Structure formats: structure tokens, C-alpha cells
Amino acid sequence: MSALLDFERAAQLAAATLRHARRLGVRPLAAAVLDAAGHPLALLRDEQASFLRPQIATGKARGCLGMGFGGRELARRAQAMPAFFDAINSLTGGEVIPVPGGILLRDAEGRLLGAIGVSGDTSDNDERCALLAIEEIGLHADTGDAQG
Amino acid sequence: MSALLDFERAAQLAAATLRHARRLGVRPLAAAVLDAAGHPLALLRDEQASFLRPQIATGKARGCLGMGFGGRELARRAQAMPAFFDAINSLTGGEVIPVPGGILLRDAEGRLLGAIGVSGDTSDNDERCALLAIEEIGLHADTGDAQG
Amino acid sequence: MSALLDFERAAQLAAATLRHARRLGVRPLAAAVLDAAGHPLALLRDEQASFLRPQIATGKARGCLGMGFGGRELARRAQAMPAFFDAINSLTGGEVIPVPGGILLRDAEGRLLGAIGVSGDTSDNDERCALLAIEEIGLHADTGDAQG
Amino acid sequence: MSALLDFERAAQLAAATLRHARRLGVRPLAAAVLDAAGHPLALLRDEQASFLRPQIATGKARGCLGMGFGGRELARRAQAMPAFFDAINSLTGGEVIPVPGGILLRDAEGRLLGAIGVSGDTSDNDERCALLAIEEIGLHADTGDAQG
Predict the structure, then answer these.
(1) Chain-centre distance for alpha carbon A55
(2) Separation of first and last alpha carbons in chain D
(3) Which Pfam families does the record associate with it (chains A, B, C, D) (predicted)?
(4) What residues in C contact B46, CB-CB < 8 Å?
């Protein structure tokens, strides 16, 4: 059963992600933190980020939770099964964005707490800022990386 | 004319599919059983399955009934005619998910009773759990397998 | 925090609702049982029920969970604030069906487990069948009735 | 031209709103802060709030910005012209939720900075928590109140 992530911690996580982007000089980001059921806890958009970023960030996090994998595993599967992922996205209105930058959040025992999705720069930079923030906040990241 | 599958038997079929998944140790599943007209009789989601699974399971069963073939035949056709399947999915809002795990249900005389769709693990494991449940319940499976 | 309702119990609850309708001679029903986050656990449609019933049953349960009230309280509020409910339904694609027959499910300590929505006969008969099934299964019903 | 509200201040405003709700003992809230163009800066949902609240909070803020009035003025107009507001909501997919709890945010010179929308308790309580937070953060509220 899922443990609980509260809105204060979710807001800290999203804000830390946007601040890391500014510090590192990558493009302005949006970050969405969802609970384990896919409902929003915190969504922040850097006021300089373009306006589709919040929706894409939310989609990255929703897709990870909806399918049960981090974004890197979704990306691998989408490459292996393009027709399946095309059909899922027609079916769900684009709920599954299969790229890095969607990360499952777990506690120390591995229980699912929710997910974060980030959008604004390259997928690798999006993910990098989220990973720094997740470590800072003391959660565990599941990116879907086979080595991770 | 189609013969009739009642809700009690449809519920047994969906429940048996989810129980086989647990017994075999595959990932938690959702299973959707539709009547021959494509309308739901029973949809069950293992409470541990991720939340897009019911929609995908329903889509697998809808696609089989909507096109008149089991999922394996849909998969072959989607590979041969990707533009056709892309267009169908834009047209229908993703009603056709062309992978194994969608199975037409027939009676002993081959008459169409409905379909089951399963999602949660690999397509092969999804289909395997459904086939065990279909046999248990005494129905006949049409997976679209050329040899089947 | 929400406690857990498993798919076996959810399926029993939905099946018991449909059986009470048959026993009482009311019109054939559909019943949807959702977890506390609004995701489906069990959806059953009497094979004699008309085909929009599953969607309406799901909408009744979703609306209760999405707004945090049983269907009778939603009905009172919709009567007092029609413009608000019209707007919500345009916004959410009809997620809030403000009539009896949507019931929050609680455990003995009052914790939210999920909701059931029922459709097929009058709202009062829909609710009556669900209440009999909830009692049979040993859960606690929150209909939003001010006296309840 | 609109002055700028940054994401840090927007996040503080949303968080302060949710904290006032907890302190006052009203129901758990969601709060959405949008920039003057209607795009999200900060959306927070108390982890105890029901799941449609973020969408409704966003709708309240969007409607104020989209029409150029605070929620109290929208409510008055919806009561005077129900057919117009029904048509707007069909047209826009429910972008205009005409009730208190949507508030335009202005700077000391009256320039538009964005809007906040709040949902979870009665419209009056939603608005009350937002007004306390707006004062705390040092912005100016335009609720659409004729006396305001």
C-alpha cells in the first residue's frame, strides 16, 4: 500500500527542481508532483518557462504512475512497441509521455509515494534537476533506468 | 445472432484472470470482459495494478470486437499497415490496441459471446492469465493466432 | 489517510448490488466500485441493463469522491448552486452526477475506502440496492443524507 | 503591460492559503495561482482534499482572468444571464466557474498580476483563506465585490 506525501514536501520538491535549473543555467522548467494515484499535490512553473510545460510535466508524471514504470523504462518500451504507445496515447488523451524526466518517488522501504514530472529543457537536463531535488528532499528516485 | 454471456460468468472470468496473475507472480492486472456489442459486463482491477490498466484492458477487448479479430491478428496487421492503424486510432480515440491480451470469446459452436482484454504485465503474460481463466470458465478463446 | 479496499471485496459488493436488484424486481443495474482515489476496482453491468449505465454508475461514484460528499449532499448543492454544477460538468466532462446512487464507502473508523455508484432504475432504487449490498459486505455507507 | 508574479511568490501564496484553511479548521483546499495570461505558476492540493479540487480551483482563476472580473462579479452576472454562462461553458469546456473563490491579483498601482482560485469548502470559506494569504504576501485582491 502507498505511503503518504504531503503538500508541503511536494511543494519543496517542485521548488527545489526549478531552483536547480536556474543555478545550473538550463532552460526554465515546470515541475509536477503527483500522489501515488496520479492526483496533483504541487505544480510549479518558472514564470519564464513556456506555457505548455506544466501540462507536459504533468503528463510525464501521470504516465509513470499510470503504467507503473519510470520514464526511462517507458522510453525503452515505446521504442520497442510504437503501435502500442500510439494507441495508448489516442486512448488516454496523451497521458503517457515516454521520455526521461518522469520519475517514480519511493520511500526508504521502496513504497510508492507518487511521481515527479519535469519539462523545459532536454529530457536529460529535466531529469537531472529533479534528481538533485529528490536527493535534497530525502526521497528515493526510480527513473526506470535498468542500472538504477 | 450472438449468444449471451451473463454478468456472473463475466465477473468469474475477470476474477479468475487476476487470481492467475497473483498465483504465477506476474505483475498485478486489470481485466475487462465486454459483450459482443462492445459494452462492459465486468471490469476488475487488482488494487495493486497501476491506474491506466483498466482503460488499456478495455481498449484491447474493444479493438478485437470492433475489428472482428483477436489481438494477435490485430498486431500482425498493425505491423503491416501502421498508417491505417494510426488513422483508426485518431478516428476512434484509441479504440484499437493492437497487441496480444485481447481475446474474442466464443461458445462451443464458435458463436461470438464477447471479448476479454487484459493489461498489467507483458502482453504475453497478460494473454496467458486470460487463457487459463477462459479454460477454467469453460469458454473458447480466439486470440487471432494463425495457428490457433 | 485512506485504508484499502481489495478487488475481491469490491467485486462482491458490485455483484451483490446487481443481485438485490434482480431479487427486488427493479430494473437491471450497473454498479461501479472505485478506490478512494477514483480509480476502478470493480465495474459490473447486468447483461440486461442498457449500455450507458456503466458510465453513469462510474460518474456517480467519481463525483462523490472528487467532491468529497455522498450523492444526496451533491444533489442538495446542485439544487442550491446550479451554475456552479453546470460549470463543473463542462470542466470535467461530466464527472459529477449529483443524484442519489453515489455513496462513499467507509470503514468502522470512518476512514474513506472508496465509493460505489449505481445506475439503472430510479435514483432511490439504485441507492437502495447498493445500501443492501454494503450492509451485506460489512462496510459503512455515507450517502450524504443529512440524517445519515 | 502586466507586471510579473514569480513562481516563488506564487508558491508562497498558494501554500499560505492551504495553511490558513488548516488553522481555521475548514475543509482541505486546493489553490491555483495563474499569471495574467492564465497560465499556471503554482498549484497546490492539500493531500486530504478531494481530487477534483485542483481542476475547480484552476477553473475559478481562469474564469476571472478570461472574463476580466473577480468571482463575485462573475456570480452576479451568471445569475442575471444564465443562458450566456451556459453557452460560455459549453464553448470553453468549463473555463468560467462563476462563484466566489476566484480573485484577481493586483499590485499597489492596480496592475493585473494574475489570479488565484481556491476550492474545497464553501465558496465563502475558500475566498476567506485566499484573502488572508493575499494580505500576508502583500498583494492586492480584486474579488469582484461591488463594495470592494
Answers:
(1) 11
(2) 23
(3) HbpS-like
(4) 7
**B23: CB partners within 8 A, 6+ apart:** none
Cα A13 from Cα A36, distance rounded (Å): 15
H/E stretch holding B88 reads helix B82-92
Q: Which of B51, B55, B85 sits opposite A83 (nearest CB)?
A: B85
Cell of A38: 496520479
**Residue A10 binned pLDDT confidence (cut-offs 50, 70, 90):** very high
Chain B CB contacts of A91 under 8 Å are 55-56, 59, 89, 93-95, 97
Helix and strand element counts for chain D (H, E): 5, 5
Spatial separation of the C-alpha atoms in residues B106 and C106, rounded to whole Å: 40
C-alpha cell at A70: 519510470
CB-based contact B61:B95 (threshold 8 Å): no
Cα–Cα distance, D82 to D63 (Å, whole number): 15
pLDDT confidence of residue C3: 58
ipTM of the prediction: 0.94
User: In chain A, which residues have their Cβ closer than 8 Å to the Cβ of C1?
Assistant: 4
CA distance D94 to D116: 17
A89 contacts chain B (CB < 8 A): yes
**Domain formed by D7-142, architecture:** 2-Layer Sandwich (3.30)
- Is residue C51 within 8 angstroms of chain B, CB to CB? yes
* Integer Rg of chain C from CA: 14
Pairwise CB contact (< 8 Å): D7 & A37: no
The verdict on a CB contact (< 8 Å) between A43 and D40 is: yes
Buried b (16+ CB within 10 A) or exposed e, C84-101: bbbbbbbbbeebbbbbbb
A142, β-bridge pairs: A104
Report the alpha-carbon distance of residue B104 to residue B143 in Å, rounded. Answer: 6
Alpha-carbon distance values, C54 to A120, B112, C31, D105 (Å) = 40, 22, 7, 43
Domain edges within chain B: 7-142
**Contacts of B14 by beta carbon, 8 Å cutoff, 6+ apart:** B31, B32, B33, B42, B43, B44, B116, B133, C11
The string of DSSP letters for C60-109 reads HHHHHHHHTS-HHHHHHHHHH-HHHHHHHHHHHTS----STTEEEEE-TT
Q: Which of C37, C87, C95 sits opposite D89 (nearest CB)?
A: C87
Q: Element (H or E) spanning D34, and its range?
A: strand D30-35
- Residue whose C-alpha cell reads 444526496 in the numeric block: C72
